[in-house]
From TrEMBL:
Protein family membership: Belongs to the Gfo/Idh/MocA family.
Molecular function per GO: nucleotide binding
Protein name (record): Oxidoreductase
Location of the Gfo/Idh/MocA-like oxidoreductase N-terminal domain: 5-123
Highest taxon, organism lineage: Bacteria
Lineage, broadest ranks: Bacteria, Bacillati, Bacillota, Bacilli, Bacillales
Short name of any one Pfam family annotated for the protein: GFO_IDH_MocA
All copies of domain Gfo/Idh/MocA-like oxidoreductase C-terminal, residue ranges: 135-347
InterPro entries assigned: Gfo/Idh/MocA-like_OxRdtase_C, Gfo/Idh/MocA-like_OxRdtase_N, Gfo/Idh/MocA_Oxidoreductase, NAD(P)-bd_dom_sf
Amino acid sequence: MKQTNIAVIGAGSISEAHLKAYDRNSDAKLYAICDLNVERANAAARKYGIANIYTDYRELLADPSIEAVSICTWNNKHAEMAIAAIEAGKHVLVEKPLCRTVEEALQIQRAVRSSNKILQIGYVRRFEPKAQMLRKFVDEGEFGDIYFAKTSYIRRLGNPGGWFADIERSGGGPLIDIGVHVIDIIWYLMGKPKVKSVSGNTYRQLGNRANVENLSFYKAADYDAGKNTVEDMANVMIRFENGASLLVDVSFTLHAKDESSIRCFGQRGGFEIEPELVLVTEKHNTILNMQPQTDSPGFQFDTAFQNEIDHFIDCVRQGKEPISPVEDGVEMMKILCGIYESAAKGVEILL
Ligand SMILES: NC(=O)c1ccc[n+]([C@@H]2O[C@H](COP(=O)([O-])OP(=O)(O)OC[C@H]3O[C@@H](n4cnc5c(N)ncnc54)[C@H](O)[C@@H]3O)[C@@H](O)[C@H]2O)c1
């Protein structure tokens, strides 16, 4: 079988992870790149030997040689580009979050369902080796039903500025940007239970704190601290129809120490993915901490992206359903938008 021709749309910060992984996949050929900023597209093309450079993604999609695209642009372009790509007969890998609103998510879902194309969402944490390892334990009932989980993704300083801080282009702040990762991995490992309600709070108390010195952080390719219309932090309780609950707190900035924790608790055992991979249970009246022996106990950025891209190429070539399909993005947008609505109205929202 010949190589699959790939185009990457958006040549900013995260595109490098996509480009590097496609480059290492012998079934994929990096065929085209597109960015509004032609210098950025040129630089990626030079580095990865990409022959076709575009600044208008619609011209790129008109090339029938392109079989699949990665969408690595601002969140406000995800829906428009994903739908146009599907309609142009391309398979789509779209970065998280799927889009900004439930309505956009449903439009994407309709486009995917009326095509024979694949859409995979870049929920990169699902592609970590340890996530797939834990999934086996969960599926075998090792922890019993998971009835409680909690996660904190706290950046004391980490508003990426530019479009991330512009609600029109991002759809929101830390909740939709980093909260989506941790809510998704827990929801996935819980077996994707149906959400019943969400009750959330968002705060805009500290601003982006661009004044802070001596500490660096992730920035949009076009960093600009001049505009900030997103929340600094959000907290939420999510209730599921099966009675389980999930507590979340996330921030771009907070008077706190950085924290990254993901913890799930079941009747027969629990597990923590972060800060440290550990399983917890009770045997013979004794409580045990068990540490899986694995090459990748921490978050392995390159490996996770390589697995994500390899999975996408596999699905495209073999007509398989991705492990992060559009339906999961629709559910996630209901959760995230429900949380923003809950925070705005000061009430719990039934989904
Ligand atoms: N999976 C992860 O861990 C992860 C990490 C960071 C970002 N992301 C996601 O990746 C996406 C991009 O984030 P980023 O950090 O690379 O942002 P970025 O600002 O660094 O890059 C975005 C690029 O998209 C380009 N762009 C915007 N609109 C365009 C258009 N209409 N046509 C062509 N190019 C266009 C911009 O010029 C820019 O170069 C976002 O959706 C973000 O949520 C995912």
